[in-house]
Amino acid sequence: MTHASHDLTLADIARHLNVAFEGDGSQPIRGLATLKDAQADQVAFLANRAYLKDLAVTQAAAVLLHPEHGKSCPVPRLEIDNPYLGYATLSQLFDPLPARDIPGIHPSAVVAQSATLGEGVSVQANAVIEEGVVLGDNVVIGAGSIVGADSIIGEGTRLHANVTVCHGVVIGKRVILQSGCVIGGDGFGFAHDGGQWHKIAQLGGVVLGDDVEVGSCSSIDRGALGNTVIGNDVKIDSQVQIAHNVTVGDHSALAGCVGIAGSTHVGRHCMLGGGVGLSGHLTICDGVQVTGMSLVTNSIHEPGVYSSGTGAMSNAQWRKNAVRFKQLDEIAKRLSRLEKNHRGQS
């Protein structure tokens, strides 16, 4: 469905979601909002029981919710098993960004003669497309972005303003690169001779699968020899650092400020919380969730939830615990001696 937001009705919304509804199907719908803030021409959603109190007083035109909450809804309802997914689907209808895309090359853009551009490509102001680049159909290159030599970008991919794609990078279809991210910068590779560092040329590339999103100011480094590889449908938040020769499996998600050191392999359907750090040369199997601020220094071979960060506490309690932590080794030794003595006496 390609309606502009002012053309949508409640019936259109229900049809787009393929759900039944109760209420006036001709009711205009001009946007989405929270239960608390929604007006009479907006749709809200309930995806968390904590907001049931807001459902009772909402002024929304309709609410997207699970059938178990249908009887509690004081306004027309759209019942769906996964309300949050429904909200995500509807959000695309009200996104003004695609309507602003104008195919063509802005006069201030620089496009190399050897570059190949598909149908409906938009190259915006001050963008640079270097030699040998291939852009698929309906690619959008945002203002000030750079696509390095011999890179390939799949159809429907969007680079927001000021994105840097370095040379020899391969990007799949329908990828979104947010402003300020760098794809294919040099990996952190240096050799030390005892006195100074010597740079190791990074000879690999980066491959991003289809439907990947990379957040603003995130960096994915090119491989030292082989490629750094990000699988299909991987979602990467802002300010994430992925080092050279890392691989991330399909459908994994990395929250803000994750750092992954070189040559680590992250499996499919993994979730790394904000601030998680992975040491280099590790293997993280499929289906692993690591909670925020955790440091992983050993490979993980069993799916599940893993944590190492500790929650906040009062400074006084933290100071006591810090002292006790330093005493753990001595306590363990004393306990071992006591156990040996006990066994000797029994």
Walkthrough of the structure:
The chain has 346 residues and is α/β, with parallel strands linked by helices. The protein has helices at residues 10-17, 52-55, 83-91, 315-345; strands at residues 31-32, 42-45, 62-65, 77-79, 104-105, 110-111, 116-117, 122-123, 128-129, 134-135, 140-141, 146-147, 152-153, 158-159, 164-165, 169-171, 176-177, 182-185, 190-192, 197-199, 206-208, 213-214, 219-221, 228-230, 235-236, 241-242, 247-248, 253-254, 259-260, 265-266, 271-272, 277-278, 283-284, 288-290, 295-296, 304-306. It contains 4 helices and 36 strands. The strands form 5 sheets. The protein has an 11-stranded parallel sheet, with no helix packed on it. A 10-stranded parallel sheet has the order 6-9-12-15-18-23-26-29-32-35, with no helix packed on it. Strands 7-10-13-16-21-24-27-30-33 form a 9-stranded parallel sheet, with no helix packed on it. Helix 2 links the parallel strand 2 (42-45) and strand 3 (62-65).
- DSSP strand (E) fraction? 25-35%
Summed up, the helix count is 4
Portion in helices: 10-25%
Mean pLDDT: 94
Main beta-sheet strand count, sense and barrel state: 11 strands, parallel
Q: Using only CA atoms, what is the Rg? A: 26 Å
Overall SS class: alpha/beta
Broad shape:
flat
Write a brief structural summary.
The chain is α/β, with parallel strands linked by helices and 346 residues long. The chain contains 4 helices and 36 strands.
List keywords for this structure.
346 residues; alpha/beta; eleven-stranded parallel β-sheet; ten-stranded parallel β-sheet; 4 helices; flat
Give the SSE map.
Blueprint: H1 10-17, E1 31-32, E2 42-45, H2 52-55, E3 62-65, E4 77-79, H3 83-91, E5 104-105, E6 110-111, E7 116-117, E8 122-123, E9 128-129, E10 134-135, E11 140-141, E12 146-147, E13 152-153, E14 158-159, E15 164-165, E16 169-171, E17 176-177, E18 182-185, E19 190-192, E20 197-199, E21 206-208, E22 213-214, E23 219-221, E24 228-230, E25 235-236, E26 241-242, E27 247-248, E28 253-254, E29 259-260, E30 265-266, E31 271-272, E32 277-278, E33 283-284, E34 288-290, E35 295-296, E36 304-306, H4 315-345
Parallel strand pairs: 1-2, 2-3, 3-4, 5-8, 6-9, 7-10, 8-11, 9-12, 10-13, 11-14, 12-15, 13-16, 14-17, 15-18, 16-21, 17-22, 18-23, 21-24, 22-25, 23-26, 24-27, 25-28, 26-29, 27-30, 28-31, 29-32, 30-33, 31-34, 32-35, 34-36
Antiparallel strand pairs: 19-20
